[in-house]
Design goal:
By secondary structure, this protein is of the alpha+beta class. It is built from 3 helices and 6 strands; from the N terminus they run ααββαββββ. The protein has a single domain, classed as Nuclear Transport Factor 2, Chain: A (Roll). This is Nuclear transport factor 2 family protein.
Length: 134
């Protein structure tokens, strides 16, 4: 995989499938990977994850969502960065908290991805969740 955009898309496909197989990520993720999620409607504090924690959280999402999709709306590439605007949608699997089964969640987010040796090295995510839609 030689394109930054193709690498990011592969990462999102693994997230959509709720992959819990860390080895699937190793062909696209740098060994010193770090993901930073900035505060948003559902995450009140900055969260920083390594690859292992990122994969565990991706796998955990299958408990909450029947499906989730990532659609890249815009992208801008530099020598070692990819900046994405992404539309994320998910369907709630079961009632929990204020969420109801089959409810649709939606977020637009900016993801700033830094590459090292053609692998995702850092990912910073700035999520903006829309009001719940049914």
């Amino acid at each position: 995989m030689n394109s930054k955009l193709a690498t990011a898309e592969a990462f999102f496909r693994l997230a959509e499938s709720h992959s819990d197989d860390e080895s699937q990520f190793r062909s696209i993720i740098h060994p010193d990977f770090e993901q930073t999620e900035y505060p948003n409607l559902y995450t009140p504090r900055i969260r920083i994850r390594d690859l292992s924690k990122t994969v565990k959280d991706i796998a955990l999402s299958r408990r909450f969502y029947n499906r989730q999709t990532y659609e890249i709306i815009h992208s801008h590439e530099t020598e070692d960065h990819l900046i994405l605007e992404v539309l994320w949608e998910a369907i709630i699997k079961n009632n929990f908290g204020k969420f109801k089964k089959d409810e649709k969640l939606q977020s637009r987010f900016c993801s700033v991805i830094q590459y090292r040796n053609n692998l995702i090295y850092r990912q910073r995510s700035y999520d903006c969740f829309e009001a719940t839609i049914s």
